[in-house]
Amino acid sequence: MTARRRLEAILLPAAAAAVLIAFWHAAVQATGTNVFPSPAAVARGLAELARKGLLVRYTRDSLLRVAAGYGAALAIGIPLGIFLGWRPGPARAANPVIQILRPISPLAWIPVAIVLFGVSDLSAIFLIFLASLFPILVAAMNGVRGVPAMYRDAGRNFGLSGTALLSRVIFPAALPEILAGLRIALGIAWIVVVAAEMIAVNSGLGYLVIDSRNAGKRYDLVVAAMLLIGVVGLLLNVLIQRVSRLRAVRWGFREEGA
Amino acid sequence: MIPAREPVPGRMKLEIRGLHMTFRAENEVRVLEDIDLEIREGEFVCVLGPSGCGKSTLLNIVAGFLAPTAGTVKIDGEEVSGPDPRRIFVFQERGVFPWLTVEGNIGFGLGRLPRRERERRIAHYVALVGLQGFEKAYPQELSGGMKQRVEVARALAVNPDVLFLDEPFGALDSITRLVMRGELLRIWRAEQKTILFVTHDIEESVQLADRVVVMTARPARIRRIVDIDLPHPRDLSSRRYLELRDGIFEEIGLAHRI
After folding, report:
1. pTM (2 decimals)?
2. What domains lie within chain A, and their CATH numbers?
3. A158:B88 CB<8 A
4. Do B82 and A156 count as a contact with CB atoms less than 8 A apart?
5. Dihedral, CA atoms, A172, B63, B4, B40, nearest 10 degrees?
6. Tens of pLDDT along A40-72?
7. What is the rounded distance in angstroms from the CA atom of residue A246 to the CA atom of residue A243?
8. Going by C-beta distance under 8 Å and a sequence separation of 6 or more, which residues neighbour residue B167?
9. What is the distance between the alpha carbons of residues A212 and A192, in angstroms, rounded to a whole number?
10. Where are the domains of chain B?
11. What architecture (CATH level 2) is domain B9-86+160-171+187-252?
12. Pairs of residues, one from chain A and one from chain B, whose beta carbons lie less than 8 Å apart
């Protein structure tokens, strides 16, 4: 039974992908388009990218930008969010500002980023930072604010206060919600890096999309880059989901489909 | 860690004088009125009252989590001004920290002990509440009764001289509840703690307590204090037990039939 299940878990998605690719191929054949690439052309495009070393280099560059921007958002967003969740006074002061900045699309910041940092790596990183900051900040704030009074009282009862209470009770109690925010932020960061690379830099998967189109309408490479973006995004999500399964935080997550 | 103070049975332990509590929300809610109560060292006292009468508020004040509107609480002649590891509050099993293992929870208040002593104590209290084999388990992997044992063990591990229990067995099924009452009595005799136990269950109070403090509905006052002059282990079908139980049923105006 389990062996069959495991087989199904591989075969069914593979079948769905095969159907999609077959449909794609048939559609390209039927319409006789010479702009949109066939699956085989995309595969050749991927091979070409790999041969030139661009596949690894561009993927690495995109990941490094995400790491820098997301890392900065994490380093600032988590402590700041915990502080604001812990202290109602400053939180009341800061909340309107946060709530106004939060719904602004990171893409609207592009001109500002270019004014501040020029057409450079830093611009892209700044955009990723902004995009991931708010989900992380708000999750940390709400996570801390939502810690049941009972845990706090129990901690105080055992003689804890101040930073000891924060690190031994409040932070671990808020951690599942913080991790949920981190996961959302990583997804957004990966979306934004592609957009940022289209305008600000000349490497990375987003650059690959826009460059392949502009330099000779290489739509086989455009679609190849899109596939790469999808696969890397999936891997990032799997990675961060792993973290949520650690036993010390698993209690905070409802069972969800893997 | 405070060294174990030799308990002196019969000495005055806890003194509540002229206690009033009024919550000010939209309109004033008088919760406690004119509570006077003395508890002796090593005594097991149950506070019995209908749900929502304010008995939990009383316990929260005595534990130092809430400041009363008027009146004083003294423990060992010293006015209570906040929570203190010498007096541990046991919540329903929801007070166990879900991010720590059974060991981690029981050792929570033992941070300042040398490691070997800490491990010895944890092992002792794991055994006392019968959780051998579950040291590395997380609370979500335990039943309600086991979680309650973890909480009791966590409280006992810091060697407090008073335990406050707020309807600790309320969420358990009736069989587990009976077992846990027996366990608590065994632990009480072994460890010689002073216990203040809040419940709405008449049978529970008569089974456990030396004295039952019967409260009125809100605002809660002390209606009567009933001495339970039954030796342990108590025979739940003895004439005296039934007399005491039915006396309290009548006291709070419930005919003993359904």
Report:
1. 0.86
2. 38-250 (1.10.3720.10)
3. yes
4. yes
5. -160
6. 999 999 999 999 999 999 999 999 999 999 999
7. 6
8. B56, B92, B198, B199, B200
9. 19
10. 9-86+160-171+187-252, 97-158
11. 3-Layer(aba) Sandwich (3.40)
12. 53
